[in-house]
TrEMBL record, chains A, B:
The entry's keywords: ATP-binding, Kinase, Magnesium, Metal-binding, Nucleotide-binding, Thiamine biosynthesis, Transferase
Family assignment from sequence similarity: Belongs to the thiamine-monophosphate kinase family.
Binding site for substrate: 65, 291, 343
Entry binding sites for ATP: 117, 134-135, 161, 240
Record-listed E.C. numbers: 2.7.4.16
Pathway in which the depicted protein is active: Cofactor biosynthesis; thiamine diphosphate biosynthesis; thiamine diphosphate from thiamine phosphate: step 1/1
Residues that coordinate or bind Mg(2+) 4: 42, 56, 87
Any further remark recorded for this protein: Reaction mechanism of ThiL seems to utilize a direct, inline transfer of the gamma-phosphate of ATP to TMP rather than a phosphorylated enzyme intermediate.
Domain PurM-like C-terminal intervals: 165-304
Main function: Catalyzes the ATP-dependent phosphorylation of thiamine-monophosphate (TMP) to form thiamine-pyrophosphate (TPP), the active form of vitamin B1.
Binding positions (Mg(2+) 1): 57-58, 135
Species: Cellulophaga tyrosinoxydans
UniProt name for this protein: Thiamine-monophosphate kinase
Length: 348, 348
């Protein structure tokens, strides 16, 4: 489904590694005062002053984490940055720099990498982070992207996974399950396309969920909102593997239990209708779907008034004593234990 | 040539991603006071105080950068860390933390990854750096390692590539060409082994150069030595692609020329005899061989007395006006222009 808009193809071996990285990064501007030296030396140099440094890294592998048959390269570049920035925001920190390394087979022409870097550039501009380094090399097969994100935070504002206390409220941003249902729609269209390459899919009714899958937005705005509301989460994590798995991480690392209320889980109407169409339970999708890149955090009850009524934030439960375990209170009022459905990339 | 000492094999899919990374990193200790939080949250948290942060990243791909038929996994883990630390030392900085991400196919059992991490652990202990994060995922084929190294330096001590001035002395550490000649020996033995699997190679005469290839040591000691000698290099780079390519980087980024003296290039006797055996010119090997991970730097002439006679340091030339270009003065006294033989991983 990727259109070849530009028939021009330049083989990567025509450029050396140095030329390639120079070419791909020539339009990137440095905008953060903390970046003293970006690309072009043995290492980048940063001046992060007396703030704490926050650092996270992720690998994205073709055929495991993304499928180029429906993921345009520009979107992939953008999403790869989002996945990493989301980890920085999940510490309640401000993202400031990234490094991007790629391993790529010769089947990709230069123009394909330009598309990828256009998406990366858009992300760096929109989220005000500087690209400060990376590595570009060849691979035997496919494309692999490794990104490291760096951020800063004041010591007393950092939200670890381990700070939740019993009676803290459990809060989630945005809505859940969209990215997973978007993937279902894209997979279905891919299967249809294989059978009939002339089929013209009408993705219009699915715009929201397809965008959630192809162009997720890391919640930088939430970190800013919480600062403005003068709320410091007692614990925070981003939702990459699904709500259930993330709640279990918070419970384990904070040594608390949790009561999650099924009827409070925020779902977009598009997600609900897609779940009906695909005959999947929407709660299951929210619990185990993953890739929403929303933030999940806990706050002290005294902060409830500060967040009450904010359309970006939904209280979905509260933390309990560790001995009570992590549970979901269903719509019918029964309690069931939450189980990890975290994604295992080694399973076939 | 890798012996299977332990017939026990555990499939990676038996563990999830979380279990795998927990298992592989359980023996790693945090030893730097600047590491506030290592593995286990959305991001690591560092307290680098008022020092400048130095950061570098590298990708190593099976079949491109390493060949597991003669590179034991433990050595590979060690070398992957060295490659990155070398970039930090090339800034005249102290390395403090690393992240390690791997993409690995299911053909590797858990025990293979344990070997890899044993090498990584040995490197972190020997060089006093903390493993603070990473990502572990599956790949379609082979093994890929992405490492990011973090270090700290005082502002006035950082050695960029761009600070060399005409008349500065050009200094190299250790000796050159060993890693390349070690690779030639290993490639030859691999070819022999393919023809006759019962052949017992005698690598004893080649111990030094094979070790240079399989177990390079990043020059942390040089950064410490320079501090002790009270010498701050005006420019510095590490030798990963060969002396010629690195000199050209220094010349280009400092806007200077260079006269390199062929007869000053430090060569180990083992390298010279291996070059004779393989009928390769030893100067060419030093200029273009690569992977020595020695440091190449420039100093002001007034600092010459401080480094004079140090067995770790060899003055191999001096910088000139940019208009004169980068040249080598041969043993016969003629001048030839240096050309980049930098390695292009995209060429087949």
């Amino acid at each position: 489904m990727i259109e070849d808009k530009d028939p021009k193809k330049t083989a990567l071996q025509e450029l050396g590694e140095f030329q390639l990285i120079k070419h791909l990064t020539k339009d990137f501007a440095i905008t953060n005062a903390s970046t003293l030296k970006g690309i072009g030396d043995d290492a980048a140099v940063l001046d992060l002053k007396d703030k704490k440094t926050v650092l996270s890294t992720d690998l994205l592998v073709e055929g495991i984490h993304f499928d180029l048959s429906y993921m345009p390269l520009k979107h992939l570049g953008y999403k790869a940055v989002m996945v990493n920035l989301s980890d920085i925001y999940a510490m309640n920190a401000v993202a400031t720099q990234i490094t991007v390394s790629i391993a790529v087979s010769n089947r990709f022409p230069l123009e394909a990498l330009e598309e990828l870097y256009a998406g990366i550039e858009l992300a760096t501009k929109s989220f005000n982070v500087d690209l400060i380094g990376g590595d570009t090399t060849s691979s035997k097969t496919g494309l692999l992207i490794s990104i490291t994100a760096i951020g800063v935070a004041n010591d007393n504002e950092i939200a670890y996974r381990s700070g939740a206390k019993p009676h803290d409220l459990l809060v989630v941003t945005g809505d859940l399950g969209g990215a997973y249902m978007g993937l279902q729609v894209l997979e279905r269209e891919k299967a249809v396309f294989k059978v009939n390459p002339n089929s013209q899919p009408d993705l219009e009714p699915y715009t929201y969920i397809v965008e959630r899958q192809l162009k997720p937005e890391a919640r930088k705005d939430i970190v800013e909102l919480l600062k403005q509301l003068e709320v410091t989460p007692t614990a925070m994590i981003d939702i990459s593997d699904g709500l259930s798995s993330e709640i279990l991480h918070l419970c384990e690392q904070s040594n608390v239990g949790c009561d999650l209320y099924e009827d409070k889980i925020p779902l977009d109407p598009t997600v609900i209708s897609a779940c009906e169409e695909f005959s999947i339970d929407s709660t299951l999708v929210a619990l185990s779907g993953g890739e929403d890149y929303e933030l999940l955090f806990t706050i002290d009850q005294k902060d409830f008034d500060k967040i009450k009524g904010n359309p970006n934030l939904t209280v979905i439960g509260h933390m309990t004593d560790a001995s009570l375990g992590a549970n979901m209170v269903t719509r019918s009022g029964s309690k069931i234990g939450l189980t990890a459905q975290g994604w295992n990339s080694f399973k076939e």
